[in-house]
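Feature request disguised as a bug report, sorry. It would help if multi-protein outputs had a clear separator. Right now it looks like this:
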Amino acid sequence: MKRFSLSLMSLAALAAATTAHAQSSVTLYGTIDTSITYVHNAQGNANLWALGNSSAGDLSGTRWGIKGSEDLGSGLKAIFDLENGFDPSNGRLNQGGRLFGRQAFVGLSSDSLGTITLGRQYDPLIDLVQGITADNYFGSVFATAGDVDNYDNSFRVDNAVKYTSPVWSGLQFELMYSLGGVAGSTGARQSYSAAVAYNNGPFSLAGGYFYAANSSASAGPRDPSSGWNSTSDGTFDGPINSGYQTAHSLAIARVAGQYVAGPFTFGLGYSNAQYRHDASSAFGADEKYNTGQGFVNYQATNALLVGIGYSYTKSSGDTSATYHQVSAGADYSLSKRTDVYLVGAYQHASGETGNGSGGAIAAQASVGSYGYGGTSTQELVSLGLRHKF
C-alpha cells in the first residue's frame, strides 16, 4: 500500500511538472550575418575592404537572444526578451558595449487587451512602419542617407513603457513613453512615440511619430564631444548628421505603404526628421531632413529575391544639402535558415552640412547607416552570408 501511494505521488509530481513546462517556454534564438564589404571613398578618396561592419547590420544585425513566456491563465501571459548584439568579425559587443543592447524587457500580454512591456525596446515606428519598407528586405544599404530618420533602426529606447494593441481587422497601434530620469526636470532626456498600421491582404499602410529630448540646457552649452544624452540612443554615426548631436531634441514623422502584386512588391515612404536647437546647441537653427523613398522587389523564384530602390533626402534650416541614393540587392536562400546576398548602393551629395561647432562643411556622401564618409560620391558593395537559429 505504501509503495502504491508513493507511486501515485510520483505520477502526480511528474504530471504537475509536465503541466508547468507546457505553460512556460524559453527560446534561444539568433542571427549571424556578415559580409565582405567594399567602399569607394570610405574616408576622403581612400577606399576600404572590410569584413562586416560593427555599427550597422548588412541584411540584419547579428544577435543572439533569449525570450520566453509564462501562461498565467485567462489569456494572460508574462513575457520577456533579452537580446544581445555583437560583431561576428571580432566577437565584440555592439550598441556601446551593452550586454543586451538590442532589447531587454519584461511585460504582460493579453489576447484581448494587448501587451505592455517595460525596458529597453524598439520604438513604435520600428515595430509598425519599418517592416513595410525596403530595409526589411535588404537592410542598411537601402536605408536613408545617414539614417537620419532611423529607417534602419539604428537606435533603441531605454526606460520605455510600451503598449501594443491587439489586431482588429488588420488595424493595430502602439504607444510608448520613456521616462527621462532627471530629478527636477521631467522633460529632460524623455522620449515618446506612437504609430498605427493597417494590413489588408496585399495592401499595407503605416505611419507614426517619434520624439526624443536631449539633456537639460540648465547646465549651460552642450559639449559636442560628450555626444547625445537621451533615453534614445540617437543616430549620429556619420558625416550627414553628426554635427547636430547637441540638438535640444529629435523629432521624426514617417509614413510608408506597400502593395504586393504576384511576385512583385512595391513600396513608397516619406519621412520628416528635425534636429531642433536651443540656446545650448552648437548650431543656430533647426535642421530638417525631408526624405522620399521607393522600391520594387521581384520574387524571381522561391529562393531568389531581387530588388531596387531610390532615396532622395533634402536638408534645410541650419544648412542645406541634397542626397541621391540608388540601391540594389539580391538574396538567395540556401535553406529556410541560411541565405547569401549581394547588395550595393551609389550616393551623391551636394551642398553643405553642419560641422558641430556652428559652422558648415561640404556635404559628404555616406551610404545608408554604415557611417563612412568621404567625398561627394560613394559606392558600397557587400557580399554576405546569413544564418538564423
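(second protein starts here, but nothing in the output says so)
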Amino acid sequence: MITLTDNAAAAVKSALSQAKGPAEGLRIMVEAGGCAGFKYMMGLETATRDGDAVIESGGVKVFVDQASQAHVAGMTVDFITGLESSGFVFENPNASNKCSCGKSFG
C-alpha cells in the first residue's frame, strides 16, 4: 500500500528513537484542505486504531486510517535533504494534481 524509501525509513527511525513517549510507528492521514483539495498529515503513533491498515516498510510500521487508505494506495514516501529545505516527499499515483509545495494534492 505505502512504500518508504531508505531515506524516509531512516528519518522515521530517527524520530522514533528521539520520541519523548512510546511510539510504535508513523501515522499517515489525508485530510480535506491544502491548496489542491487534500493534504497529508503525519505523526508518530503509539497504537493501532479501529479500521487501520498497518504496513511494514523499511522496518517501520506505517498506520493508515480507513478513510485515507484509498487516497494513499501505491504511494511512495521519500525524505530529501537540501540546502534550502528538507522533508518528506510524496509520490502518489492517486493524485490528479498537486500544489507546488508537494504537501497538497487533488
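Even a blank line would do. Unrelated, but nice: The beta strands are 2-4, 25-32, 38-45, 53-57, 60-64, 75-81, 86-91, 104-105.
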